[in-house]
Amino acid sequence: MRVSERLADARESLQGLTGRQLGFAAATAGAVAFSGKAIVAKLMYRLGADAVSTVGMRMAYALPLFAALAWWVSRSEEARRTPLGRRDAWQVAALGFCGYYLASTLDFLGLQYISASLERAILYLNPTLVLLLSVVFLGHRVRWAAVGAMALAYAGVVVVFLHDLSSLHLGVHVAAGWHDVLLGGALVFASALSYAVYLMGSGTLVQRLGSLRLVSYASCMACVLCIVQWVVVHQVSGGQAGGWAHLPWQAHALSVLNAVACTVLPIWLVMQGVKHLGASMASQVGMIGPLSTLWMASVWLGEPITPQLLLGTAAILGGVVLLARVKG
């Protein structure tokens, strides 16, 4: 009897270890895949695409996948118990506009002017923006330790920003001056702010609908908005913006890669990481995102990895980790 009990305990321990390993692998792969979005966008810019066509093609290829995911989630028992009401639908539409359509558009516009490393560094300020918005609009109090953590993170962004200013080669474009880097940084920061608003607004709705259901519905809305924007801008500009007919087949292949590997698949991977590791541990594993961006930008875009860039990235990650611990 004792032997069988020991075998059962060993089997349970092995299954638990395997689950944690799968969760770690999924969370890591999801973070790296999300970070690859900027690399793919930069490569498309080199092929002649602009921000409007890049985000439009990405969402056009992602829409069928998100629609299939939404259909699959809607068939679950949980979805049947909590049907989507009219108010829920409007909230989902608003979140899709703010969290995915607007954030994606601003992000891809900013990537035309700054390096992929600076883009990823700015986007990792999301936890600090959520905290600041909570203080301003919800009246939450902030501890001095959290202020210090945010100061460290923003100081890291300044270091990476100065690195872009001192670098002549920004991955795709050669900056005409400091205003180019400032414009690109401001656009990406606005993207991060838009996504922070989405995170704040999705709190109660994600509890009612579930995270995967909310993401699939909101993403479908964002895909439609991005495609409509693509068509309208192309027509209004007389074909000067949002063009795609002149793009080589490699641009379409990159768009498919962006849609599948850098947009839809990472959502499932991160969910698996949260399932096996928990939200807190999965978010800690996600810190590999900026580091993977540095490596991918160096390999695929030729962006240099310098001590200044590593210092700034380390400060950002350190500030975000400290902020999570203070809030926890």
TrEMBL record:
UniProt cross-references to Pfam families, sorted A to Z: EamA
Gene Ontology, cellular component aspect: plasma membrane
Any coiled-coil regions, as ranges: none
Protein name in UniProt: DMT family transporter
Primary location: membrane
UniProt keyword annotations, A-Z: Cell membrane, Membrane, Transmembrane, Transmembrane helix
Localization per record: Cell membrane
Domain EamA, first and last residues per copy: 23-161, 184-324
Membrane spanning residue stretches: 21-45, 51-73, 94-115, 121-139, 144-162, 182-200, 212-232, 252-270, 282-302, 308-326
Matching InterPro entries: Diverse_Substrate_Transporter (IPR051258), EamA_dom (IPR000620), EmrE-like (IPR037185)
Membrane topology, record value: Multi-pass membrane protein
Naturally occurring in which organism (per UniProt): Aquabacterium lacunae
